[in-house]
Amino acid sequence: MLLIPCPFCGEREESEFHQGGEAHIERPKNPDKLSDAEWADYLFLRDNKKGLYLERWVHRHGCRRWFNVARDTATNEIKTVYKMGAKPPRGLTKGRAK
Amino acid sequence: MVDPYLRQSPLAHLHLDARAANDADLVGAGLRLSERAHLGMINVRGVAADPAFAPAFKKATGVELPTAANTTAGKADGVHAIWLGPDEWLVITPPGREHALADKLRAATKALHAAVTVTGEARTVIRVAGANARDAIAKGCPLDLHPRVFGPGQCGQTILGRADMLIHQTALDRKSGAPSYDVFVLRSFAEYAWTWLEDAGREYGVQVVAAKG
Amino acid sequence: MSQVNRLPDGGRIDRDQSLAFTFNGRRLTGYAGDTVASALLANGVRIVGRSFKYHRPRGIVGAGPEEPNALLQLETGGRALPNQQATRVELYDGLSADSVNCWPGPDFDLMSGIGLFHRLTPAGFYYKTFMWPASFWKYYEHVIRRAAGLGRAPTAPDPDHYDKMNAHCDVLVVGGGPAGLAAAAAAAASGARVILADDQPELGGRLLSERAEIDGGPAMDWAAAAEAAIAGTEDAIVLKRTTAFGYYDHNFVGLIEQRGAILPDGGDRSRQRIWRVRAKQVVLATGAIERPLIFADNDRPGVMLAGAVRSYVNRYGVAPGKRVAVFTNNDDAYRTALDLADAGVAVAVAAVVDVRHDPSGDLVTQAMARGIEIVDGAAVTGVQGSRGVRGIEVMGLNEAGDGVTGAARDIECDVICSSGGWNPAIHLHSHAGGKATFDAERGIFLPGETLQAATSAGAAAGTFDLAGCVDGGAEAGKAAAAQAGYKKSPRRKNPKIATEDEAPLRLIWTVPTTAPTGRRGKHFLDQAHDVTAADVQLAAREGYRSIEHAKRYTTLGMAPDQGKTGNIPGMAVLGQALGVDNVGDVGTTTFRPPFTPVTLGALAGRDVGPLMDPVRMTPIHHWHELAGCTWEDVGQWKRPWYYPKDGEDMHTAVSRECKAVRDAVGILDASTLGKIDIQGPDAAEFLNRVYTNAWTKLGNGRCRYGLMLGEDGMIMDDGVTTRLADDHFVMTTTTGNAASVLEWLEEWLQTEWPELKVFCTSVTEQWANATICGPRARDLLAECTDIALDAESFPFMSMQDATVAGIPARIFRISFTGELSYEINVPASCGLSLWTALINAGDKYGITPYGTETMHVLRAEKGYIIVGQETDGTTTPQDLGMDWIVSAKKDFIGRRSFAREDNQRDDRKQLVGLLTDDPSTVLPEGAQITETRLERPPPGSTVPMIGHVTSSYHSPNLGRSFALALVKRGRERIGENVYLPLDGGVARAEVTGPVFVDPEGSRIDG
């Protein structure tokens, strides 16, 4: 049971939240320009990484705000949380595998 | 305003007034429960960072906009405002005053990006008090309600058992250390929440008390 | 004679409080303060059960959670608890306990013959024997479970209740022994919020079982003072009879408190409580668990752990035997010999057999001074007596420790106290991702790095001397408080504790005999699961090199005791069998919660009965209840399904309701529909993006149906949205998706389009919705309101504010049945008043309340879809023939996916109607559809399915059955026949269009 520091409400138990998948997946500005494969990549393909992962959470039973979490999937350590639209803090690379 | 005889609180069928009369001598009970029915509630959305927003809010409500997380402003038995999120508040009014106040809020925020929605019908409030109020709630709420971290005037949106709850500590009895909370639940969950609280209070003794409004 | 083994005095039991209990039907007595185990031993009960696989007689081994054998079925009926360790159950008056895994009883067990065939049940026996043929497992399983079963699960409802408590603290201390007490006292003195949890009814931990002294007095006096100091601190919580069973991420620890164990009728108190503790810092003072020496036939009743025997003597005033031998590889076990020697004339120490040559520590010297015989450099090579120890065979042990020398000597004894050293109890540390490091010299795993804000202290950290435990505990408590922000701590005075000098132990993992392991007697590692050293060696020979694999193959450590005594020796035996130099390199298996079993009742807590799942009620709920409706669960909501009149079955009631709506007027409680208030200058643009159709030009006061897709192009939700003002809409959603649609909208607004000036607020429960529907709906409404209701003044798909029956209302002229319909929304508190007013006014029009079933029939007659019924997450608007609602002029969520190859297939399933040949056949929903008639397809052949039935009803308006279905190329097949293989034969149906009633829409204006 994680303890998640909601950037708005403070530390709350995981049961108040809902995980929303990998962070920083932006909706393509012009979907028609994308091939089916590119569109499928946006739609379906997500990293499933061991280690640092940038993901979205929503404080479903609290303030209902979305935010980003940098979490180590192996240890569950939460390195930091940051607001939607913000870039991952320096030193934390994007979760996408090389 | 609607004729009050046409209105029914979601716990009306439990006949809490009769229960309260019946429970009058259970003064030693560790948990005191009552329904604060029909409180007016206005959901307010706005941009806290907009310098015009807080003054507009204050002008309409007479209450300072609570911008710190998990805080409230105003008197718990009068008009008060509860922080719900970085751009969301709940304004509580005595029964029947919500529409007029909502109109004032709309007028005051007309030029701003804001939304004012009357939502009091959607919820009811259960006043939870007594020496074991905190223990009873702690059985189903993961929030730390200890006086070192959660005191009068503080609030939080969290969980009670299997229902969503907005909790507002309205008072702390200095002598006994017993807190009072207003527990806000959605109308459809009212009976669940009430049953849950009565059950949680079993070991402490439960007294149903008449609502003071 | 009762309590034959009870010592004349001593112990922490209350001899004035005699407690009666029964064991396998025998009436026995014990004292308050006893465990069931200590009371059984006091009464001279040797055999408490039969072993799991061989049904060998077994006795009590330990005195705590390490006990492998004494598993009892406690109580009967609803209060029955299977597999309770006798060593952990406090005795109470009237307790009843039975052995498990034996029939008819442990003293004479019919299954014990299995022991004679032990060569047939080696490691992996079940895998090897019952693997083939796989389909037979269902037969084997019954037999195996009966033969090997432990306790029996209760079948009656549990009359007690269980609950949970959330708690938060700065410092959680697990374990109330010397280290834990010192830690909690130090942390509390620093001002931190402390929770101290201990599994025993008294704090003190190991001190309860020892004759130790602190500051020149009994150590328990020190413990009592420490307890008082902690309990006297503001905000400290001391939990006795409370076991920490699991340590989870981010310092979340699960505790289980026994609250009603002494008084089975707990009344308003819960019997057990789970504490969900979130701690800033955790101090693990969980102590250590003694491990036995693994010698031949070490499972005979009377072979016990040396430390456990000390517990029985010192804490419970019980000497488990009359003539006791000690077999050890360390100095600590000499304490047992000394305590027994001092216990009086009732018990004698036969000898101490020590695997070490010339042992020399202080305790050894004391034993010698008492005249206790010490047989050094020696091994126990055999145990006499199968139903109870009668003696041991002792031989010399060679230098390497792998063979015996010299002549055998028999020593008469009835109890063997075995000690192979103590393992730090690192279970909790390990639960939460903590590493273990191996101390090769002592042969123990120590807590290593941890992911949690935790420290281990005392014996749990490998510190076994009392002074070290107290000091280490205090330091850990102080440091934890400081870490939690309480940096000022008062000066602490270290108590005076004398420390005996102890010599190192000698690691002997399997005690040799004159024959190879397993040939002469059995060396049990795991008595609970009957796993021997020979089994582990066999597993190694068969290629199991990882302890995790060997564990699962042999089932070592997988019994209810989770191998608390046998895992480390087992790991060492595997290491030796594999020829690993450092047995620590084999590693230990991962400990997982729970540390000790947790009852399902406690895990369920109060989520039982009416509190199992909230029942959401509309404002009109109690009217429906009084009207005798049948309920349908829609998510957590209760919705009226239909309202049977006297003697009506469902079919009759629904037919009556359907007719009433089409012929007169019906009324439906639609309060559960999701409602979202959408405000802001970009509200229309936002709707353009989340719905497939266009919203910009919708006039104020007008309503429009919308279809919401996932980004994959599949239908997610639908509903009618109404424009209240230029910048203000109210959206409706399906009942089940109300919360998820709001979350979906918020997700897009917050994460993708923060530039849009839009706010969404749920108003689902702000409004009650009574929908009146049918040709007389206008007449009825006219009686309750002043506004003009003619089709011109109040056209279809529009909304008006009005007063209805004295209540301010929003009336929506929308229809889910094809009939003239008004959805009247009023403040929720007025819902019941509105409803009763309409019912009263509607009497003369034959108003009929109808439920969800009738709603479904009526909408299906019109071919209106229900999301989740006609759609299943793979359904596009085009599949449903709803291209008309898909805008080609704008982008919206899901649009790009229409162009995906799979969505362009021309053989996609399409929505059609079905009419069976037999008008009385109501097809089952979900029935599969085939192209050709196949009565009995040949075995192994595949029958191509071309679709399935999504909705199917009897329609009183059509006078026959009808169905909606998704069928491949369905629209091309209209007029053709398809087939539906059903249980009773194959049905034939004609494919039709999906609209059965009023395709012209002529009824909508009444």
Question: What features would you describe in this structure?
Answer:
The complex is a heterotrimer of chains A (98), B (213) and C (1006). Chain A has 98 residues and is mainly β. Chain A has one domain: Folate-binding superfamily (Folate-binding fold), CATH 3.30.2270. Chain A contains one helix and six strands; from the N terminus they run E-E-E-H-E-E-E. The model of chain A has no long low-confidence stretch (mean pLDDT 92). Chain B is an alpha+beta fold and 213 residues long. Chain B contains five helices and eleven strands. A six-stranded mixed β-sheet of chain B has the order 8-9-10-7-1-11. A five-stranded antiparallel β-sheet of chain B has the order 3-4-5-2-6, covered by helices on one side. By secondary structure, chain C is α+β, with helices and mostly antiparallel strands. Chain C contains 23 helices and 49 strands. In chain C, strands 8, 9, 12, 13, 14, 15 and 28 form a seven-stranded mixed β-sheet that branches. The interface between A and B is medium-sized, with 12 and 13 residues.
Strand content of chain C: 25-35%
Separation of termini of chain C? Answer: 94 Å
Flag low-confidence runs of chain C.
none
The biggest beta sheet of chain C reads: 7 strands, mixed
How would you describe this structure in keywords?
heterotrimer; B: 213 residues; alpha+beta; Alpha-Beta Plaits; Gyrase A, domain 2; 5 helices; 11 strands; 21% helix; 31% strand; C: 1006 residues; Ubiquitin-like (UB roll); FAD/NAD(P)-binding domain; 7 domains; seven-stranded mixed sheet; six-stranded mixed sheet; 23 helices; 28% strand; elongated
In short:
The complex is a heterotrimer of chains A (98), B (213) and C (1006). Chain A is mainly β. Helix content of chain A is 9%, strand content 34%.
Topology readout:
The complex is a heterotrimer of chains A (98), B (213) and C (1006).
Chain A: E1 3-6, E2 10-13, E3 18-22, H1 36-44, E4 52-58, E5 66-72, E6 78-83
Antiparallel strand pairs in A: 1-2, 3-4, 4-5, 5-6
Chain B: H1 16-22, E1 31-36, E2 40-46, H2 53-61, E3 72-74, E4 80-85, E5 88-93, H3 98-108, E6 114-118, E7 123-129, H4 133-138, E8 155-160, E9 163-172, E10 179-186, H5 190-200, E11 206-208
Parallel strand pairs in B: 1-11
Antiparallel strand pairs in B: 1-7, 2-5, 2-6, 3-4, 4-5, 7-10, 8-9, 9-10
Helix pairs in contact in B: 2-3
Chain C: E1 14-23, E2 26-32, H1 36-42, E3 49-50, E4 57-58, E5 71-74, E6 81-85, E7 95-99, H2 125-130, H3 137-148, E8 162-174, H4 178-189, E9 194-197, E10 213-214, E11 217-218, H5 219-231, E12 237-239, E13 242-248, E14 252-258, E15 272-284, E16 288-290, E17 303-305, H6 306-315, E18 323-328, H7 333-341, E19 348-354, H8 362-369, E20 374-376, E21 378-384, E22 391-397, E23 404-412, E24 415-419, E25 422-424, H9 427-431, E26 436-439, E27 444-447, E28 454-456, H10 466-483, E29 524-526, E30 531-532, H11 533-541, H12 547-554, H13 567-578, H14 600-604, H15 621-626, E31 630-634, E32 637-642, H16 650-663, E33 666-669, E34 674-679, H17 683-690, E35 703-709, E36 715-725, E37 728-733, H18 738-752, E38 759-762, E39 767-773, H19 777-782, E40 799-804, E41 807-812, E42 821-827, H20 831-842, E43 848-849, H21 852-861, H22 895-898, H23 901-904, E44 909-916, E45 928-930, E46 945-955, E47 960-968, E48 977-982, E49 985-992
Parallel strand pairs in C: 1-7, 8-9, 8-15, 9-12, 15-28, 17-24, 18-19, 18-24, 19-20, 33-43
Antiparallel strand pairs in C: 1-2, 3-4, 5-6, 5-7, 10-11, 13-14, 14-15, 16-25, 21-22, 22-23, 26-27, 29-30, 31-32, 33-39, 34-37, 34-38, 35-36, 36-37, 39-42, 40-41, 41-42, 44-47, 44-49, 45-46, 46-47, 48-49
